[in-house]
Write a structure and sequence with these properties.
seven-stranded antiparallel sheet, mainly beta, 4 helices
Length: 360
């Protein structure tokens, strides 16, 4: 019986079926011809598969073998190592010769690159010299699916003899999509966020199971306090510029970034208002009412761009800001009359708009 079951596990007794599209983590399609299903009735029965699983648990291929999941016809060794373990659905994927594993390791956008084996690194993909694939663990073990048999944790050589020996080692080269990001417990969207200076927490959730990461790195204006492998980071956002940020890396390469801006609380005091055509308008950051175009720390938030818009918010003219201490001035053109809007863009990328009436 053991010899019969060994042959079952190392052979492809299968039929090709029509699957929905299967993609690598980087979105490359796996050829439909490389996807197959084990027959539900064939040269082996459920009783034979169960008997072989019991034999594996009892040391058929070595004392290290531990059953992690029962036998299943839904996926095989390549399906588990390259697809299921990254969060994909259970499916059987054929060997490199038939184009099954090839899209994962070769082509214009491979999801894995070849590397050297390290017994302390987990989730490396291992290709055996025979037709077999496995996944490494952090304690020097391998995890692999024995054909339609069980999912097994084992030493490198405790496998059916037809699988051969470990041959090549592959590490991930993909970026799992972020499904949601929380800043201080609140769901956010987009990479550009306005928040206050001080201590903050960010937690991210991703769509695929990454091999390594995420890891966070600060940009100027941010400092990492602690970084948790669960995808949570505590950081401070505190100058010296008015913005800072975090870079998020998966598989050792930066893939996502978030930039934080401090709310400036800026309001413009524009005078004279009403103004006359061909008159100089002054934008003050020191008004009697303490309405100032400044950052929350009191530092003047410079105006980098000024635009004059008409009542329908159409651009009339752009101005270069003319600064003199805390004052910025622009000169109106002749022929303007009616209601306009003076739009100022500040150095922290925030925008303020002030209604201006221009008289003849």
């Amino acid at each position: 019986m053991n010899k019969i079951c060994t042959a079952v596990l190392i052979s492809h007794i299968c039929i090709h079926v029509c699957y929905s599209q299967v993609n690598t983590p980087n979105g490359v399609a796996v050829p439909p011809a490389a996807l197959f299903a084990y027959q539900n009735a064939g040269f082996y029965t459920d009783a034979q598969l169960q008997s072989n699983q019991n034999a594996i648990q009892n040391g058929l291929y070595g004392p290290s073998c531990t059953i992690l999941a029962n036998y299943s016809r839904q996926y095989n060794c390549h399906g588990y190592a390259w697809h299921v373990s990254t969060g994909g659905a259970q499916t059987c994927i054929d060997q490199v010769t038939f184009g099954g594993v090839t899209p994962y390791i070769a082509g214009v956008n491979p999801s894995y690159t070849q590397t050297n084996y390290n017994s302390t690194v987990g989730k490396l993909r291992i290709r055996y010299s025979g037709d077999h694939s496995a996944l490494t663990t952090y304690d020097g073990k391998f995890i692999s699916k024995f054909g339609p048999g069980p999912l097994v944790k084992h030493n490198a050589l405790d496998v059916p003899p037809g699988y051969g020996n470990p041959s090549t080692c592959w590490t991930c080269n993909y970026a799992p999509p972020l499904t949601s990001v929380y800043l201080d417990g609140k769901l956010i969207s987009g990479s550009f966020q306005t928040t206050t200076w001080g201590a903050h927490n960010m937690q991210i959730f991703w769509g695929l199971d990454p091999d390594t990461g995420p890891t966070f790195s600060p940009t100027a204006g941010s400092t990492i306090i602690s970084n948790q492998s669960s995808g949570a980071v505590n950081f401070t956002f505190n100058g010296p510029s008015n913005n800072g940020g975090l870079s998020i890396a998966f598989c050792g390469a930066p893939r996502y970034s978030f930039t934080f801006f401090k709310p400036n609380g800026a309001k413009m005091q524009v005078y004279p208002n009403p103004a006359r055509e061909d008159e100089v308008i002054t934008i003050s950051s020191k008004s009697p009412e303490d309405i100032q175009a400044v950052n929350l720390n009191g530092r003047v938030n410079r105006i980098t761009k000024i635009a004059l818009l008409d009542e329908r918010q159409r651009l009339v003219q752009n101005y270069l800001s003319n600064e003199d201490g805390d004052l910025t001035t622009v000169k109106l053109n002749a022929g303007l009359k009616g209601t306009y809007f003076l739009k100022a863009t500040f150095e922290d990328r925030t925008v303020q708009t002030k209604r201006v009436l221009i008289e003849k």
